[in-house]
User: Which sequence fits this backbone?
């Protein structure tokens, strides 16, 4: 069984940076390809970035070059470094397996980009 807890969200001005963390319980974390997802207000949840167990990384076009996903298997944690934030990045951010497992969804962490 895996539990995921996201943290690091905040209110930030456009152009600012945030680092999100996703702490996982369960020894199988290192075996899971992981992703960061987000759900903007009134919209569906979308995949933002992903990282495989071997370190292969991919991003959706809207964040490529601004966001960086990484993982530390020793700490059972996956990170999302977000730079040059834009108002359209405002959303609740979640981590989950890629593809996602319904039982793994956590509460997410709110990121608000506004002046």
Assistant:
């Amino acid at each position: 069984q895996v539990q995921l807890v996201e943290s690091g969200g905040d209110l930030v001005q456009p152009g600012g940076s945030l680092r999100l963390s996703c702490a996982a319980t369960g020894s199988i974390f290192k075996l899971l390809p992981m992703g960061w997802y987000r759900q903007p207000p009134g919209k569906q949840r979308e995949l933002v970035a992903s990282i495989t167990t071997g370190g292969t990384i991919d991003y959706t076009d809207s964040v490529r070059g601004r966001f960086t996903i990484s993982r530390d298997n020793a700490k059972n944690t996956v990170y999302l470094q977000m730079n040059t934030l834009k108002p359209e990045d405002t959303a609740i951010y979640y981590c989950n397996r890629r593809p996602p497992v319904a039982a793994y969804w956590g509460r997410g962490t709110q990121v608000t980009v506004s002046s």
